[in-house]
From TrEMBL:
Keywords: 4Fe-4S, Iron, Iron-sulfur, Metal-binding. It comes from Nocardioides marmoribigeumensis. This is Assimilatory nitrate reductase catalytic subunit. Residues 336-359 are annotated as: Disordered. Residues 2-57 form the 4Fe-4S Mo/W bis-MGD-type domain. The lineage of its organism: Bacteria, Bacillati, Actinomycetota, Actinomycetes, Propionibacteriales. SMART domains: Molybdop_Fe4S4. InterPro entries: Asp_de-COase-like_dom_sf, MoPterin_dinucl-bd_dom, Mopterin_OxRdtase, Mopterin_OxRdtase_4Fe-4S_dom, Prok_molybdopt-oxidoreductase. Pfam families: Molybdop_Fe4S4 (PF04879), Molybdopterin (PF00384), Molydop_binding (PF01568).
Length: 694
């Protein structure tokens, strides 16, 4: 590479803009680039992203398991083995015995190809992706309310102008630090309201007049939101004109919160009634209907990863609609997508219930459209599969083989030890990855893939902006792009359908497949995006759509839907043998399962391993001491981690990050939201005690 290459960070959905420069002796280094989302900022993960390219254990050739050990293999040997095992397993057990778990970090082109490949080359219904654990609750609620799911239906920069921001279960100060600058306006106005059971780095921004931190009992976010709506209705602060002209279903929702006054809810949520009143009026004061400068309601995984996550997001959207926010200047509801391509990853057919363009796989018209683009009969497209948690639960029973792309479920999924056992019991586990992740180490076949700086493609940021990812250097010899590998495997499996391998041509096909769908990329192409003016989908005549809902919502009648919800309970109640809540989350240095960031020395040094945060009162009662090991046990397993004594957590709650094997997700429950399949990763019941002397 002779010229610097303009691209974006490989990690989170903020997709900070970067420039890659060649360094003497090979490789690249990263520098930040001015862009509306990051304005020249990068977090420590972004600054060090190029180091993963040079990880000493980078995979540079396929591996196959022989006599219990992974040994090097040629591509022909590895793919020949995969094809013959798939053929014989499907001959014995049927096509659905092979599953595919995709990833929210794959480019749009790879996500699209993986969905098409699973359905046509494997002929299986069993495909889903790890974004199920990330986005499904907000996606379900957004589709239900607005008829469309674009994480933020407005540019991130619109948040700057909001006078109040209600931030629900999101610790952006650690997960996407450059985002914090967009909260400065709300903080200056004293209007940042953070809902989090833990005083996270983000919640701390509310101190000194920045706003309010509401610290509910884990699992009671929805109750709290209903209480906020109760205050608005009771005090006549609803935007009646907006509700009457742009929405349906308000009356039933208003009735449903009539008896949920904050004093009554305080014993459930632990949030004092005056704070709830204050937060509700702070939001109302900022709403355009009351002459305010704008108010935003933003949700994150903390409120979404629950068995009632989709209804909790519905409660947040109800609040936003009642105040007349969606579609108004500096106002609205949005979901802060987490994974780098969490938005695009869910739009192009990796989900068990969807085809490209965010189309329902059960809709005959959608099936016919996509089948025509794929050049097959509609009957050749398999029907809906099962969400990721159920797919993993079937491993070793009805699912005999699994392909994993861009995911490390051994660390990142709930009840991780049980999932690990199931993965071990498969007849065939094929993992495509760039490093030997914990999941790759269990595989029968490991296929090395290129990294972000070594590939061409596109990703879609949390605001629906489609961005070009550009190749700055060649992958190591021996690495093959997934687009080529999937095409090769399709041919070996006897699939007559053509699979494009050139990213720009894959994108063109993806755009045709999405045309007319809920996520319509039909006006886009690599050539259009190459002018560096990233565009928000949908695009018409080369012009994108930064803001949705100004005049109408995406439902046929143009109206948004209120959705009545009644609070449920977490999957697990506290009980004598598990009397404390565990909430899980992230730290600044690491991304997702940590498979990449744990390989960056500076990040590993700054956050070397898991820990558990314990309130001083609980620590004193249980004899736990700062820095000493504790056993944390749930119904799924037990982990040993050092204690951090801190007032950041509630006395009834522990906090543990999940980026390491054998940490938080050994304890979490795989109970899921029946609407969307989101697992309850954020709260479970545990016991904590000092490590007993052995
Ligand atoms: Fe930006 Fe996210 Fe990358 Fe950090 S991890 S540099 S916040 S895109």
């Amino acid at each position: 590479m002779s010229e610097p290459v303009r691209t974006h960070c490989p990690y989170c959905a903020l997709q900070c803009a970067t420039t890659l420069h060649a360094v003497p002796g090979g490789g690249v280094e990263v520098s930040p680039r001015d862009f509306p989302t990051n304005r020249g900022g990068l977090c420590q993960k972004g600054w060090t992203a190029a180091e993963v390219l040079r990880a000493p254990d980078r995979l540079t050739h396929p591996w196959v398991r022989r006599d219990g050990a992974l040994v090097p293999a040629s591509w022909d040997e590895a793919l020949g083995l995969v094809a013959s095992r798939v053929r014989s397993l499907q001959a014995e057990h049927g096509r659905d015995c092979v599953g595919v778990l995709g990833g929210g970090g794959l480019t749009n082109e790879k996500a699209y190809t993986l969905g098409k490949w699973a359905r046509l080359a494997l002929g299986t219904r069993m495909i889903d992706y790890n974004g199920r654990f990330c986005m499904s609750a907000a996606a379900a609620a957004g589709n239900r309310a607005f008829g469309i799911d674009r994480g933020l239906p407005f540019p991130v920069a619109d948040i700057d102008r909001a006078q109040a921001v209600l931030l629900l279960g999101s610790n952006v100060a650690d997960t996407m630090p450059p985002f914090v600058q967009h909260l400065a306006g709300a903080r200056r106005a004293g209007g940042l309201v953070v809902v989090d059971p833990r005083r996270s780095a983000t919640a701390a921004l509310c101190a000194d007049g920045g706003g309010l931190h509401l610290q509910p009992v884990p699992g009671t976010d929805q109750v709290l939101l209903l209480g906020l709506l109760h205050v608005l209705v009771r005090s006549g602060r609803v935007d009646a004109s907006y509700v009457g002209s742009r929405t349906t279903g308000f009356d039933a929702v208003a009735r449903s919160v009539a008896d949920l006054w904050p004093e009554r809810l305080a014993s459930l949520t632990g949030v004092p009634a005056p704070l709830v009143e204050q937060a509700a009026h702070l939001l109302a004061d900022a709403a355009p209907v009351h002459g305010g400068g704008g108010a935003m309601v933003l949700s994150g995984r903390g409120v979404e990863q629950h068995v009632d996550g989709s209804d909790t997001v519905a409660a947040a959207i109800n609040l936003a609609l009642a105040l007349g926010l969606p579609g108004r200047p500096a106002s609205g509801y949005g979901c802060l997508t987490g994974q780098g391509n969490g938005q695009g990853g869910r739009e192009h057919g990796q989900k068990s219930d969807q085809l490209p363009g965010y189309r329902s796989i059960s809709d005959p018209g959608a099936r016919a459209h996509v089948a025509a683009v794929w050049g097959v009969e509609e009957s050749a497209v398999p029907g809906p599969g099962v969400p990721a948690v159920e797919l993993l639960a079937r491993c070793g029973s009805s699912v005999r083989a699994l392909f994993v792309h861009g995911s490390n479920p051994v660390v990142s999924v709930p009840d991780a030890s049980a999932v690990t056992r199931r993965l071990r019991s498969l007849d065939l586990l094929v993992v495509s990855d760039l490093v030997p992740s914990e999941t790759a180490l269990l595989a029968d076949v490991v296929l090395p893939v290129p990294q972000w700086a070594e590939e061409e493609g596109t990703v879609t940021s949390l605001e629906g902006r489609v961005l070009r990812r550009r190749r700055a250097l060649a992958p190591p010899p021996g690495v093959r792009d997934e687009l080529e590998v999937l095409a090769d495997l399709a041919a070996r499996l006897g699939c007559p359908v053509r699979f494009e391998t050139e990213p720009a041509r894959v994108f063109d096909e993806l755009a045709r497949a999405s045309a007319g769908g809920r996520a319509d990329y039909s006006g886009l192409s690599h050539a259009l995006l190459d002018d560096d003016e990233a565009r928000f989908w949908p695009v018409a005549d080369g012009v994108g759509t930064p803001r949705l809902f100004a005049d109408r919502f995406a439902h046929e009648d143009g109206l948004a839907r209120f959705h009545p919800v009644r609070p449920g309970d977490p999957a697990e109640d506290l009980r004598p043998d598990a009397p404390v809540h565990l909430v899980t989350g992230r730290v600044l240095a690491h991304y997702q399962s940590g498979a990449q960031t744990r390989r960056v020395p500076a990040l590993a040094e700054s956050a070397p391993g898991p820990f558990v945060e314990v309130h001083p009162r609980l620590a004193e009662r249980l004899g736990l001491h700062d820095g000493e090991p504790a056993e944390v046990e749930s119904a799924r397993g037990v982990v040993v981690v050092p204690v951090r004594v801190t007032t950041a957590v509630r006395p009834d709650t522990l906090f543990m990050p999940f980026h390491w094997p054998g940490s938080a997700n050994v304890l979490t429950t795989d109970a899921t939201d029946p609407v969307c399949g989101m697992p309850e990763l954020k709260v479970c019941a545990v016991q904590v005690r000092p490590l007993s002397p052995s």
